[in-house]
What we know:
- The structure holds 2 protein chains of 2 kinds.
- In chain A, the strands form 2 sheets. Chain A has a 5-stranded antiparallel β-sheet. In chain A, strands 6-4-8 form a 3-stranded antiparallel β-sheet, with no helix packed on it.
- Helices cover 27% and strands 14% of the residues of chain A.
- Chain A folds into 2 domains: 9-225, q2cbj1_9rhob like domain (Jelly Rolls, Sandwich), CATH 2.60.120; 240-311, no CATH class.
- By secondary structure, chain A is α+β, with helices and mostly antiparallel strands.
- Chain A has 9 helices and 9 strands.
- By secondary structure, chain B is mainly beta.
- Chain B has one domain (2-85).
- Chain B has a 4-stranded antiparallel β-sheet with strand order 2-1-4-3.
- In chain B, β1 (2-10) and β2 (19-26) form a beta hairpin.
- The model of chain B has no long low-confidence stretch (mean pLDDT 96).
- Chains A and B meet through β5 and α8 of A and β2 of B.
Amino acid sequence: MNDPPLLSSAQMASFVARGFLRFDGAVPADINAQFMAEAGEVPELAEGGKIMAVYGDTLAASRIPEVAAGTPLAEAYAPGSAVSRMLDLPLVRGALRSLLGEAPVFDHHFLHVTFPPRYYEAAHRENVSQHTHQDSTIDPRLSFDVQVMYYPHAVTRPMGGTRFIPGTHLRKVSEVALGRYQNMLGQQHMVCEAGTLLFLHHGLWHGGGVNLSDDVRYMFKIRMHASSSQVRCWDVDDLPLKNAKGPNAQRPIFFRKSAPERGTVEDILMTPEPWFEQDTGRLEFVNRIKLWRYLTDDPTYDADYWLTRLETAV
Amino acid sequence: MRQKVLVLYLKNSALDSPVLGWAQYDGSGETLHMAGDDDTPPYATGLAALRDGWRLFQASQLLPHPRGEEFDLAYLKYEFFFEQLVEAAP
Lengths: 314, 90
């Protein structure tokens, strides 16, 4: 057993294919309670008041620190603070080491607060969900940053929750330019128990759901990036030996008389999302294979012949 | 008159292909739609929307793929805009 426990190849392949890993109830209740205390309560809004003013006051009063971009993650939070304790959980350390290698670097964090209807009624504003977007800006890199979404309290469906669309992370878009996509097949809403963690590829399309409950909703996000190679940082012991069945060993495709083996890297990388277009869905497969090649440092890797076919020149 | 707009994202360029994504904007004010408000598409295909009285007024073009960028993906490719005109409430 590795210390910390590293991700498996199947988990890494799932991250490559779908752009997220979810761990329900991973953070113990005492850390969640400490986080809620450090975040502080959101004041009620007086009639005619401004939500953003209350939001600003909440951030200012919280005990969550300001941290400069570029700070080593290990130095970003005071030892013993809730976020430091969360980041020190073996599951979290193992996942971050697997995804980002040693010594990740802090980019930014934010306390996302989603207000219930009474705040909008007081402010005379319409209560709507956040447009779907990709964070930051156009990002042509093959390497990736990770965003850890921490849900310190239980999130019910009426509370909205983070909405995200699995498999959208490899598309190179410009932030909220895609805001008109209100709904897509396969979209997920984070309904979860307290202490749930979501590790996102920086490119995953997402947005905050509208809060129709009576309670304020919190989500704490930390973005971080690698400071060293992201190649083969997970538990690679379960990876098949390279070309174990011969050069560029492949499984039969299209014409098959039995279902393919489930749970293999190829099976995971070649599983489409419900929103995939008929033709560009194949390009999604190509881009997944390219990312897997990068992470395994194996330029010969292929799944279902998508790249071999294109690279064959006699 | 007020305009209701329906945007459908289809599986390929054929109007009778399945709906993968959708958005609605209601200028009449009768309904309010927003991101994440429904996990089930309003129509199975673009053709089904036509049969229900929606008028198509814009469809995305089919464009060649720039050399060197053939595998780059960004926005959804098969976008169709529909409208309905309704009487404004007095």
